[in-house]
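Hello,

I think I submitted the pyridoxal-5'-phosphate job twice by accident. Can you confirm which output corresponds to this input? Input:
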Amino acid sequence: MAFERDNIARLHAYLPGEQPDYTQTGSVLKLNTNENPYPPSPNVMDAIRGLTPEALRLYPPADAVRFRRAAADLHGLTPGQVIATNGGDELLRLLVTVFCAPRNGAAAGIGMTAPSYTLYSVLADIQDTPITIVERGEGFALPDDYADRLNAAGCRLAFLVNPHAPTGRFETVARVREMARTFRGVFVVDEAYADFAPGDALGLLRGDDALPNVVILRSLSKGYGLAGLRFGYGLADAGLIATLDKARDSYNTDILSQVAAVAALEDQAYFQETCAKVIAERDRLTQALRKRGFDVPESYANFVLAAAPPGGPAAEAIYQHLKANRILIRYFNQPRLEDKLRITVGTPQQNDALLAQLDALVPAA
Ligand SMILES: *Cc1c(COP(=O)(O)O)cnc(C)c1O
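Support: Only one job matched these inputs. Its output is below.
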């Protein structure tokens, strides 16, 4: 007999991209999970090495106050507007548990677009809260009536990933503001990829017309090269952050990650430089793939979504061929994505290695 709740018995768990043993990744080119190809700032390693055994003997600061001050200073907000979490993913889980009741509860579920980050729906299924899915339009455009449709369905929490995963599309802050104003619940702008984009939604949290229902998610996994650290944060109205804080695990971020995250945020020069290198390579990779017949929309993230050239090998066959040659990219066997490949932007050398392997299969025009 099963001990778990029925919805957990039915649950399809989130499927992460393949992660080879890190001690062996030297032999695999990993362009499948949107990690930064550059290591974190050297100051991060210094901060970790600078910790004393005493720091490990004691519980970490439960309120991560040094990190929250650093993030507030960086973004022109107050520490009360910041919550630190164990990766952006923990923030997503916290949002679903705080704002969405299980079925039959008073507050109904989440709204999201399709395609989008599949973790949103997995977290909703764990909470057993309803999911409203709005299909993206032609070219994966965000429908104008997104917020209206979620209101009509009674959603309490809306997700908008911007830049969009897995296409890299970018919505202007004016458009995001309009949707957040229209939506009657909490509107989450998932900015995991904002480090590579031409703008962000921070303005929605500042000044007299700040929106009290907006939560911005940030992650140190992509732009800061710290996916292994597990550190992310949320930005919102101070009242909303206080509500989230009530439901947070007391010691959700450990001392190693807190000191490392502060050091990463404080080295903005290094951060800007590595992000600029990734952006330059993203644009070069886009052009190189287009030359080879792939259809690649402009991306504002650290990956591109490339549709396989018509008449050539199918996307899945290309994925398998690269994997056999120790290059990992991401293939999603899902409606509207089954003819496409999501490729994380690497260093110039890594991208050249990818292109050379592709040339063996799909010659340049
Ligand atoms: C990477 C990512 C996150 C956060 O990831 P963490 O590693 O948990 O910080 C959130 N949303 C999207 C869409 C992402 O790609």
